[in-house]
Amino acid sequence: MADLVSREADQIDRNTFKKERSFRTAITTSDIIEQINKDQHIQKNQHDEEIFHTEGNEIETKAEDKQQKIFQEKKQTDYNSDDEGLLQENQDKSILENFSKSSVCSICKSRRPNNECQRKFNYEELEAATEGFSIMYSLSEGEYGPAFKGQLDNKLKIAIKKIQVTSLQEEKLFISEVKLLTAARHENLVMLLGSCLRENKLLIVYEYACNGSLDQYLSRKSGRLLTWRERMKIAIGISNGLKYLHDNNIIHGRVKPSNILLNHDYTPLLGDFVFRTERHELKNSCKDKSFRNCGYTAPEYQESGKLSTKADVYSFGAVLLELITGCMVSDKISGQKCLIERARPLLGGREYLQLMDPEISSSYDEEQLASLVLVTEKCLRKNPKERFTMNMVRKVTEKLLHVYACVRLSLEAIHQKIKLTETS
C-alpha cells in the first residue's frame, strides 16, 4: 500500500512539474519578447536616450515614484556631457536606499558595515590599519593608485585606495564626488566609508569584500567553478546595482570583473567607480590608438572618451557574456578576434548551446540562458541608441525571477503534500 501511494505521488509530481514547466516556458518567452518590443519602442522615441526618465505608464512602482519626486524639479541632464554642475545638483539630495540591516556572510560571518561606520578618517589610523601601508597588505596597483586592505581598531576590515591629487581644484572635485558616493547605498554596491587627505594624497576608504573579485573565478584562479545559479545571482545583482546608479545620475565607468567584488554567498558588489578627474585622463588614453580594452569599453567611448550610461550597459553586456561562456574578454587567442566579436553571430542567432560554458553545460536552465543571451545581445549593440537601458534589463530579470519563484513555491507545496501522504 505504501509503495502504491509513493508511486502515485511520484506520478503527480512528474505531471505537475511538466505543467509548471510548460506554464513557465509560455509565460517567460512571450512576456519577455512583448516587454522588450514595448521598451524598444519607448527608447526609439526618446529625445535623449541618456536622460533619466520614468517610462510612461509601463511601470509604476514605488521606487520610481520616489525617484520622480526626487528629480521632479531637476533639469534634464545629458549623461554624455561633462556638466560640472551634475555633482553639485546631486550631492545635496539624499540617494540613500533602505539599508538598515547589515548583511552577514553565511560562511565567514563577516558583517557588512552600516551607516554608523561612515565618517572622516585620519591618516594615522589608516597607517596603523595597514602597518604603514606594508606590501603585505597590498591588494592591487591600479591605474590611478595602489589599493590596500586593512583592519581598524574595532576589527572592521577595510580597503583603502590612494589617489594622487595634483591641484586644489582636483582636490575639491574629488572630495565632492566622495561626498556624493558616500550617500549612495545599495546592497550591490561597495560601501564608501569615508576619506582622508594627507598632503597631495587622497585616501578613500571602502568596505572590504571577503571573497575576492569575479575575475578570479572567471580565470579559474580560485580553483572553483561558479555554478549556474551563482552566475545568475551575480548577473542580476550587477544589474540591480547599475540600475540604482543610473536612476541617480551616477555613471560607474569601469564595469569589469576585477571591479565586481564578492562575498562567500556570491552576492556581487560593484566598486572602483571612475571619478570625474580620472575621466579627463581616460579621454586622453582613449584618443591614443594604442589604447585597447577589448570587450569592456564601448566603441563610442573608445572614439570620444565620453562616458555615458550606455557605456556602462555595454560593459555589463561583456560581463554577461563572460558569465555565459566561462571565458574572459581579455583572453587572447592567436589569430582570432576577441571574445565579443567571435560571439556576435552566435548571440544574434540565439545559438545558446554553442555559447554555454561546457563545464556547466549539464546544469544550466534553458529559459534563464535564453533570457541572458537575449539581454547580452541587446547590451552589446555597437550603436548605443539600440542598446537596452538598465531599466529594460531589470524588467526582463524581474519577470524571469517572478515566474521561477511561482514555480518553486508550487513544487514545494507539491512535495509537502507528498510527505503528508506518505506519513498518513
From TrEMBL:
GO molecular function: ATP binding; protein kinase activity
PROSITE patterns per UniProt: PROTEIN_KINASE_DOM
Tree of life domain: Eukaryota
Name of the molecule in the record: Protein kinase domain-containing protein
Residue ranges that the Swiss-Prot or TrEMBL entry lists as coiled coil: none
InterPro entries: Kinase-like_dom_sf, Prot_kinase_dom, Ser-Thr/Tyr_kinase_cat_dom
Organism in which the protein naturally occurs: Medicago truncatula
Alphabetically ordered keywords of this record: ATP-binding, Nucleotide-binding, Transferase
